[in-house]
Amino acid sequence: MKRIILSRKGFDSSSGKSASPIFKDKRLFSIPIPSKNPSPHKYREVKIDGISADQALREASVRSVTVNDYCHLDPDLRKGFGLFGQANSSQSELRNKGVGKGDLFLFFGWFKHFSTVGPELHHLFGWLQIKEVLERYSDIKHYLNKRKILHPHGFGQSSPFPNNALYIGNDRLKVSNRITKIAGYGLFKKSHPSLILTRKNQPRSKWNFPKKYFGGTKNLFLNRLQWEDENQCSVECRGQGQEYILNTEKNPNIISWAVDLITRYG
After folding, report:
1. Which of 162, 173, 194, 224 is most buried, with most CB under 10 Å away?
2. Is the pTM of this model over 0.85?
């Protein structure tokens, strides 16, 4: 595991124009972004861990889409799936920074506890360790057809996206060349302070990492992020980038951070 990638997904200020909801029972639902073109799923067809997209849209009082609109369900971290598609310059960035087999995506998004008018947060909601990366559209289609599943990055007769790729998740998490009993992909069951990137009482783009794992690390970030205050392990998540890549070779302790989150809250 040479790379941990903090990957921004779900509704945002441009796609959906709303935070995704944290429900009263602390369950999370990352609302997929809308799709302008026909896609394998409409919102009314999506159900994840017992919550329907219809429920999530109503909880967040979303007006920008309806249940009959197409959505881009990606990443698909439901049991039996474990898929994530990337394309365009974001895929080039992942490739150029050496992201590949064994590396770990931690997916985060914009969340809010609407029932208590809670703060707006950047919150981790799922993970996927890379088993394989498919970059040829024929390979993507073959893989999906073989498994008899649908995914927006393999939908249609030709590639729907420039520079298209599909990341396939491990069934079990592999750490230090040891296959564990921990799921290689999935969704965090409920909101917890340890899964919240945003600093308390700060705008959602202001983050803190735990000193226990991140303290004393220089040159940890391979793109975008940089220490705002190295002693406090604080950063600011600037701009609209999707992928924030951390170099575990500079600090192997952050692998323990990620595995601990998955073990405790996954």
Report:
1. 173
2. yes
